[in-house]
Structures are given as structure tokens and as C-alpha cells.
Amino acid sequence: MITEPTSKYLSNTVQSIQPSGIRRFFDLASSMENVISLGVGEPDFVTPWNVIEASYHSLEQGYTAYTANAGLFELRKEISRYMKRRFGVTYSAQEEMVVTVGASQAIDLALRAVVNPGEEVIVVEPSFVSYAPTVTLAGGVPVPVNTYSRDDFKLQPEQIEAAVTEKTKVIMLCSPNNPTGTVLSKGDLERIAEVVEKHDLLVISDEIYAELTYDEPYTSFPAVKNMRDRTILISGFSKAFAMTGWRLGFACGPKAILQAMLKIHQYTMMCAPTMAQHAAFEALVNGQKDVVKMKESYRQRRSLVIHALEEMGLSCHVPGGAFYVFPSIEKTGLSSEEFAEQLLMKEQVAVVPGSVFGESGEGHVRCSYATSVQKLEEAMRRIDRFIKTL
Amino acid sequence: MNSTERELLQLIEKNGRLETATIARLMGITVDESKQILEKLEKEKVILGYSAIIDWTKGTEEGAVTAMIDVKVTPKRGVGFDKVAERIYRFPEVKAVYLMSGVYDLSVSIEGKTMAEVGRFVSEKLSTIDSVISTTTHFILKKYKHDGLVFSDNDEDKRIVVSP
To answer: Which keywords are on file for this protein (chain A) (predicted)?
Structure first.
């Protein structure tokens, strides 16, 4: 907590938010040598060269000025084509789309555009660390709904029913999920859609990992019957195209909502970085082959890690997407934080305690398999050794 | 070739030292299956061998000179370029021979200890072969990238150690 005298100037809202639990682990792991990190929430690939080169070229040509608030029109047209081609959803590049500074900003814009003070937003946990705080910052009230390993961390429609009150306005979905890797199937989404429709809810669907699914064809939430006009679709370039540092995402949705988001974006951000937009354009036009290659490599490493965890006797559902596994460490008798801290101290392997992703993440740790095969194998040997000492 | 074989080949093309157990885990097959596939592909000469990519300029003077030679030849009746190519590739100094489209016919890579040694090979052995009409020798001054691998050390993980 901040205790300096100047803290009296801080807003109540900001003071009510805790810094992410991931921060402490970052500080701890950063201070140590010889750490193999399975705690990284981003691809281990460098952005494909043609994408980097396209950005160079745009700079050489002098494209260093602002773009339209919603983003380069050429890029939005490509996003529109891409969403149609890959996920079968149609959005107007002119009116139903905004290019943002990462998917994170798109989530912030979406919440600020729709939430009134005191309105409730259902957050499906374990979840990405920023959802609940972003709801709070938008004046809303985050309502966590827990998912469990016995359901493969899939949200059950009855759970939404149980959480809905007259103040509920929005439900936030994330499939494939960070941290569990769980993918909701078409059937799962259809059952959720029924409840959404029944209670007249709006859905913010974070589909940043949509390209990274390994078992079944992916279903985008707005592609489900009657859901298009109830959904703000959030996506971006970070995960599929290995472009996290470029900070480029986008949101698509019904015109009235997207125009409201654009209004906030216009006053608070102006536009996403121009050189990153040029890079993203190249990624969409010529990047699909690299996406396929990277995805293949993640799929192989998923297999490696799942197999190794099984051999150690750590139970783990097979995650259908993203690049995380979320094994149960309950049999060790340690809390997820104790497990992660001791593993780091004794064997220099960094994983993220499940509890930072919400209450229902307790008893699990998140391991990212977006790291080299050699490092993964060494990390698995160390974890195995660690568990045997307990 | 089926998709499993292709996947295995792509894995070992990138890293020939991957252990069969690792290959099996990456592909979600058993160790026995991965061994069988490897043996089959070796027997069929789909996999011709396993070699290391070495930066000989580091800490040693051995074999540091490589030349690429454009060779024009007269093809032989009945056997085309193949017989001439064989005459050339049987020399152990020759690391690679390709039949090319364009202004010359064979591209030949030679490795030697010194420029003089390579020069001697070209003048005494290569250009004296019956069908060889002319040779143009290019010495490699520096290797930046070879077989998909970059000759530099700038490949460390640049990501922060823990992130959401």
C-alpha cells in the first residue's frame, strides 16, 4: 500500500484496486539467476520478418503522422476480410470497428462505453488479471463466477443464471482462456447464448487467442445465432502473429456501441501507433502461413508438457487452446502461491500461482509452454525433482 | 509420405539431435512408433544422414575456405549432365553439386583449408575434366546464414520473465 502523504490525492476507485499478484512474482523471479520461466504470457517467437520489414518501410516512407481515430482504413478493411474469412463474422470497416492499443485498451473502451455506475459485470474466473480492475475503473461492479477443473474450466449456463441480478449488464467471456487454455465449443457457446438472450445481456468476448486452438474448429461468439448484435468482439495481433510489443488490437461490434467506443478512443488515445498499424496490415495480408507454423509448434509443445505432467502425477485437463497448461497442484498440499514460490527458490522455475487469476484458480499453477523444447524439458525435470522432495 | 512422417521430418530438420522420446512426446505418439518411423525413413533414404552446422571460424583455422564455382559443361549423349556431375561430386573436397537453370550448368561448392588449395583443385581437377568448358570461382567471404541458421549470437529470450 502507498502510505506517502501524497496518497491522499488518490481517487477512491484507484485505491480500491490491488496491484496484480503477478507483480510480486515478477520482482522475485527477476532478482534470480538461471531461472527457466514458464511464467511468460506471450509467444516465444519474434514477430515474422516480413511484418517488421513492412513497418520499417512505412517509417522510411515517412508514415509517422496520426491515422484516422478508428485506425487506417486499409487496415480496417483487411480486418473485416480476415474476420469473415477466418471466423465467418461480418463487420463494416467503416462503422463497426476500432483499431486499439492492444486488446487491453479495447476491453477498457468496451466497458467504459456500456457500464453505468453500479452496474454489474460477470467475470468468468480464473481470468486474465485485468478484467475485474478494468470493470471497477469503468465504475462497474465485477461479479466473479468461478469455473472448476471438474468442468474443464468451462462456464456452465446455470452459473450465469445464479449470478444474474437486475443490475447485471455484461458478461465477459474469454475463449481460449488465459490462464486455463480452455476452449468453449460451439455447443457450449450456444447454451451460454440462450441465457444471454433470456436476460438481455451484452457479451464482451475476448478472442485474442482464437487462432491458437488445437483440437476442434474454433467458434467465434458473434457467429452464434442471434449473438452478433449482443457482442463486442475483442481481438488483436499479439498472440497469433507474435506481436505483443507492438500493442495492437481491435474491437468489432454493433455500430452504436462501436461509435461510442470510438468517441472515448478519440478523446483518450487519438489513434493506435501508425507504424504498428502498417505492420498489422502486412500480418493480415501475408502472415497466415506463419500463424500456421507457430500454431503447429505450440501444439507439439502442448503435447510434450501434458505428457510430462501426467508422468509426474500432476492432474491436468488438456487445454484446447492458447499456450498455457493449468495443472492441479492440490496433491502437494501447498497453496498455489507457496508452490510457485518454493519451486522458484529451490529449482529456479517460474510458474504463476493460479490464485492471481481469481479464487477458483487456487490449487493450480499456470505454466506457459511458449518456450523452447530444451527449456521445457529441463523445467519439467526440475518440477519433477521438486515434487519428489515434498 | 503421410502427415506423421512429414511432421517428424520437419522436427528433425530443425534439430537433428532431438531424442526419439522427445519427438514422441511432441507428436503425441509412442517412443516405439517414433523409432519405427525414423528407421523406415532412414532405410528409404528419405533421411540421408545427420550433420551439425558448425561455425568453423570460431577457435579454429580448419576448413575455413569455401568457394562456389559456376561450371559450364557439355552434356554427354544418353546420360545428359548426370555423368559429368558424378565425376565432380565424387571428389571428397566437393560439398555440394546442383544442376542449375540459367547461364551456367552446375553449381559446385568446394571446401578447403586455404585459397591456394581450392584454386589448385579447380585448375588441376575440375577444369581438366573432359566435358567442362569453363569455371567461375567465387570465394565466400563471410557466412551470415546457412541452412536456415543465422551465424550470430543475438538469439537470447528478450521477454520479461513473468507477465500476465
So the answer is: Aminotransferase, Pyridoxal phosphate, Transferase
